[in-house]
Design a protein that fits this description.
The protein is an alpha+beta fold and 339 residues long. 45% of the residues lie in helices and 9% in strands.
Length: 339
């Protein structure tokens, strides 16, 4: 049996993204902001913004590679101008990062989410004080009962996988799990509004590395938490954290272990209560069943759309011939030579 992947459970009307990260940058300004429309970026209006504010979003998901900084700087150099006069103190703007998780197994996904939550309170120290406790990017510690209720229900897998998370009640979290079923991503909403290309790049890169390294180095949330409780933060850091130019100062925070502990014991209550081997088996079976259902629908659609079927008249002009007996056919042949 093939291992289930997150993309096997996405909504049927959605296509799995090809790249690694999608970026959304909200900007307000006292001048006129440009309407950017190029290979990598497009512009959309955002009703929550004021003063002619706009949102700049990537066209699909960008690859995490050596050109990522140049692609981000290519946008910010167009936006952050004297003519635009960007409001860099606006409390309404933020930067959201969508991380593509379509090729994660469900267990790998929850392991990555656990790694993020474990480090969330530390990561938010880079986002700005106004983002801590913000109702549009609630941390786990801000709404732990609400968030973990949905996570616990989801891990029971009593319904279509990830459908439990398809609610606005988890959408406005530091990590938006609502995006899994809709876009095949987890959306990190914590970063304040900024047009600093280095900060946007480093935040994208650091959070991407934490999710990716958790996926690659740990089989389950349980094994990740085991390492933290047994060996401490320093051992975990070497497996999760990758250096960045502007964010490594977080590693020197005087309360780093206390910030991690705030979520560690909360996570343990949920992640240790799940039988991950059984969870994987259930998800594999559900993926197999969904694939079978999709194959049947696809087969029917191919038949309906085939050239042979389209040669028939439209349904409203289609006349179904009456069934004739052998004696009736013989009589008609004798009469006019037709069948």
């Amino acid at each position: 049996m093939e291992k289930a992947l997150v993309k096997d459970f996405m909504r049927s009307d959605r296509k799995a993204p090809d790249g690694d990260i999608g970026i959304e940058i909200e900007v307000e300004a006292s001048g006129r902001l440009p309407l950017v429309d190029n290979t990598w970026w497009k512009t959309k209006s955002e009703q929550s913004l004021r003063n002619g504010g706009l949102e700049y979003i990537t066209r699909g998901a960008l690859p995490v590679d050596t050109l990522m900084f140049r692609r981000i700087e290519g946008l910010t150099s167009l936006v952050d101008t004297k003519e635009a006069q960007v409001d860099k103190e606006s409390h309404r703007t933020s930067v959201h990062i969508h991380h593509n998780v379509t090729n994660y197994t469900p267990s790998q996904l929850w392991t990555s989410i656990t790694a993020y939550w474990l480090l969330e309170n530390l990561l938010f120290k880079a986002c700005g004080e106004e983002r801590e406790g913000n109702h549009f990017c609630l941390r786990l510690k801000d709404a732990e009962a609400l968030i973990l209720r949905y996570v616990s229900d989801e891990l029971k897998v009593t319904d279509h996988p990830f459908i439990t998370l398809d609610t606005d009640n988890v959408r406005y979290s530091g990590i938006n799990l609502n995006a899994i079923n809709r876009f095949g991503s987890v959306e990190l909403r914590g970063m304040r509004g900024t047009v600093d290309p280095q900060l946007i790049h480093d935040w994208s890169l650091l959070t991407h590395s934490i999710l990716k390294n958790a996926k690659n180095n740990f089989k389950t949330p349980e094994s990740l938490l085991d390492m933290y409780f047994d060996k401490g933060w320093k051992s975990l850091k070497s497996l999760l954290w990758e250096e960045t130019k502007s964010l490594d100062y977080l590693l020197k925070h005087k309360d780093i272990e206390d910030l991690i502990d705030e979520n560690a014991f909360t996570l343990a209550n949920v992640m240790y209560s799940c039988s991950w081997s059984n969870y994987d088996k259930i998800m594999n079976k559900k993926a197999e069943l969904l694939k079978s259902q999709k194959d049947k629908k696809s087969s029917k659609k191919k038949m309906d759309d085939s050239p042979w079927m389209s040669a028939f008249p439209a349904p409203d002009s289609f006349s179904i011939p009456t069934r004739r007996s052998l004696s009736q056919m013989r009589a008609q042949i004798a009469a006019d030579g037709s069948v």
